[in-house]
């Protein structure tokens, strides 16, 4: 007697395979179907995993593992997503709808981009494909530069090599920022309608899409080089750069040259795009070991600074010499880099004030980033805005001067790009490092000087990876039901559930704990990974004092989450 659930999933898999234009995923799925039809339980379970759910389209677009099935990234799913987005754009803009499409160096990125362009053109949407693989910030720039209704970037950013993704930006009143509600739900509804209507082979396609020329890249380079400003004369800087096997080096090096910045020594083994990311276990500059080759190169060259982009170059990382650190180099946290860039932005804004009509710019950061930026804003008399996590929110802060999030994302030029941009952040940071060196200060000296003014802030993070996503909810529910009264030896002063609405803070599935000594803990499920994330922030009298407080708080939180 057959099992109805097995029959249903086999039918869904066969229908998917029949419309799959990708020879690799088609063959893989046919093999899986044959094994499942023969009664192999592991194959049946795999089919259920791939077809019982659909990869959800949300404010982060789509992101997932490359494989066949509705719950994976593949040509069928991407084609459905493009057709749904096209329907949304036609509904909103009619015959004036337009979209620009970019792609990075990951496996299938170009294929997904070209499929999308053909589907957009077939739906009557003006489609402009970027000329070659390029960083995500170039696509974000292109949406505004070309006056497009929307933008699509095919990338999985710093996810593992087996992943890819589909990030959507909106033009018009959204000024090239990533989508936010209700647009995400409206686009998702159109995608669902396309998927329900029949196979993708019935969708109209056209090769009448446009190919943007290199002038767009030149325009991005010129606009981004401008963030460096005037540089001190007669000062050099020995810098090592890694593109982390991504697409950053070509564009970043052009920006550095156009700005008159010292051209860094690129880590050769990681300079060119490689979808396998062979020298790193996880292509994220935040991960342990990701900067090992850069550190080795920096030691060999007696460099003064290491800078890094993630694979699609929307994130930026920094490491500095530190004799007390393993290997003699210390990677700065995203909050430390945000503090340095934020201080410089606020200091420049304060110096630029003139006349009664000057409106000071606003500093903004995600609510899980360090309170240091708020302290900087107060120090310079600027307004500060807390936002939900993600640059789709940070970029929308009214009057934004500078925004960042602790996960190595920085927006230093909101008039050019309304998204995190690791290349403009690198250009600004190199220019600042030159100015500090000309003034006789190291980067570490500058951090100490800022700490002397606003206090020494230090941060930590716990990422609790789960195999069952429901486990994140159970932990959050347990903490809500039994809020901690003490963390380590320090009493809890307040426990807030942002999901219930807290004055002055956005509503989100986040728990905030503040201890009696002023430390802050934020707990939230990750939006893109199977993790529960915990963010720790303290203020100390010195860097050592702050580091000790973070260590004690980290131990207390790990004990709390383990119970």
Task: Provide an overview of this structure.
The chain is α/β, with parallel strands linked by helices. Helices cover 40% and strands 20% of the residues. It is built from 17 helices and 22 strands. The protein has helices at 4-19, 23-37, 41-51, 75-93, 109-122, 136-145, 183-197, 215-225, 248-259, 292-301, 334-352, 372-380, 391-394, 422-438, 443-454, 470-481, 543-562, and strands at 62-65, 98-103, 126-129, 150-154, 163-170, 177-178, 210-211, 239-242, 265-266, 305-309, 316-321, 329-331, 362-366, 383-387, 400-405, 409-411, 456-465, 486-487, 490-497, 511-515, 520-525, 531-540. Strands 1, 2, 3, 4, 5, 6 and 7 form a seven-stranded mixed β-sheet that branches. A six-stranded antiparallel β-sheet has the order 17-22-21-20-19-18. The chain has a five-stranded mixed β-sheet with strand order 9-8-10-11-12. A hairpin with a 4-residue loop joins strand 20 and strand 21 (520-525). The longest helix has 20 residues, at 543-562. The two termini are 45 Å apart. The relative contact order is 0.08.
**Percentage of helical residues?**
40-55%
Give the averaged pLDDT, no decimals. Answer: 94
The low-confidence parts are none
Distance between the termini: 45 Å
Give a short account of the largest sheet: 7 strands, mixed
Shape designation: globular
User: How many β strands by DSSP?
Assistant: 22
Share of residues in strands: 15-25%
Radius of gyration: 24 Å
The tally of helices reads 17
Structural class estimated from helices and strands: alpha/beta
């Amino acid at each position: 007697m057959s099992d109805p659930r097995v029959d249903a999933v086999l039918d869904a898999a066969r229908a998917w395979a029949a419309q799959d234009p990708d020879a690799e995923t088609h063959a893989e799925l046919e093999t899986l179907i044959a094994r499942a039809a023969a009664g192999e339980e592991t194959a049946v379970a795999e089919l259920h995993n791939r077809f019982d759910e659909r990869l959800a389209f949300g404010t982060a677009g789509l992101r997932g593992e490359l494989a066949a099935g509705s719950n994976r990234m593949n040509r069928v799913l991407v084609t459905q997503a493009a057709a749904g987005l096209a329907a949304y754009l036609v509904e909103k803009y009619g015959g004036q709808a337009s979209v620009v499409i970019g792609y990075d160096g990951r496996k299938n990125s170009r294929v997904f981009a070209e499929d999308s362009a053909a589907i957009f053109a077939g739906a009557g949407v003006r489609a402009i494909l970027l000329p070659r693989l390029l960083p995500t910030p170039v696509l974000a720039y292109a949406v505004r530069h070309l006056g497009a209704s929307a933008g699509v970037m095919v990338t999985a950013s710093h996810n593992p090599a087996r992943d890819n993704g589909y990030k959507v930006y909106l033009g018009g009143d959204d000024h090239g920022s990533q989508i936010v509600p209700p647009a995400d739900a409206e686009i998702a509804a159109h995608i669902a309608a396309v998927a329900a209507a029949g196979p993708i082979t019935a969708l109209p396609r056209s090769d009448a899409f446009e190919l943007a020329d290199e002038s767009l890249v030149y325009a991005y380079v010129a606009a981004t080089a401008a963030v460096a400003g005037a540089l001190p004369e007669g000062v050099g800087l020995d810098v090592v750069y890694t593109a982390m096997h991504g697409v950053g080096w070509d564009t970043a090096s052009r920006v550095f040259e156009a700005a008159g910045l010292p051209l860094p020594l690129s880590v050769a083994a990681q300079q060119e795009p490689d979808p396998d990311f062979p020298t790193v276990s996880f292509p994220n500059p935040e991960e342990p070991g990701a900067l090992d080759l850069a550190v080795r190169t920096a030691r060999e060259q007696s460099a003064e600074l290491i800078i890094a982009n993630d694979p699609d170059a929307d994130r930026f990382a920094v490491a500095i010499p530190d004799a007390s650190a393993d290997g003699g180099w210390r990677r700065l946290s995203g909050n430390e880099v945000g503090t340095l860039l934020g201080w410089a932005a606020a200091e420049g804004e304060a110096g630029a004030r003139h006349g009664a009509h000057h409106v000071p710019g606003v500093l903004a950061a995600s609510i899980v980033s360090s309170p240091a930026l708020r302290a900087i804003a107060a120090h310079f008399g600027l307004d500060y805005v807390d936002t939900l996590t993600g640059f789709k929110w940070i970029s929308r802060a009214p009057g934004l001067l500078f925004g960042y999030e602790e996960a190595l994302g920085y927006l230093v030029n909101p008039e050019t790009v309304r998204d995190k941009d690791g290349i403009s952040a690198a250009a600004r940071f190199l220019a600042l490092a030159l100015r500090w060196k000309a003034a006789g200060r190291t980067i570490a000296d500058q951090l100490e000087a800022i700490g002397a003014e606003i206090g020494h802030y230090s941060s930590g993070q716990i990422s609790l990876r789960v195999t069952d996503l429901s486990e994140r909810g159970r932990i959050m529910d347990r903490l809500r039901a039994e809020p901690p009264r003490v963390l380590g030896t320090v009493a809890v002063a307040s426990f807030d559930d942002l999901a219930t609405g807290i004055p002055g803070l956005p509503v989100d599935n986040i728990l905030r704990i503040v201890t009696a000594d002023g430390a802050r803990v934020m707990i939230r499920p990750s939006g893109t990974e199977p993790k529960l994330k915990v963010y720790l922030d303290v203020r100390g009298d010195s860097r050592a004092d702050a580091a000790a407080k973070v260590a004690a708080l980290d131990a207390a939180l790990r004990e709390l989450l383990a119970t």
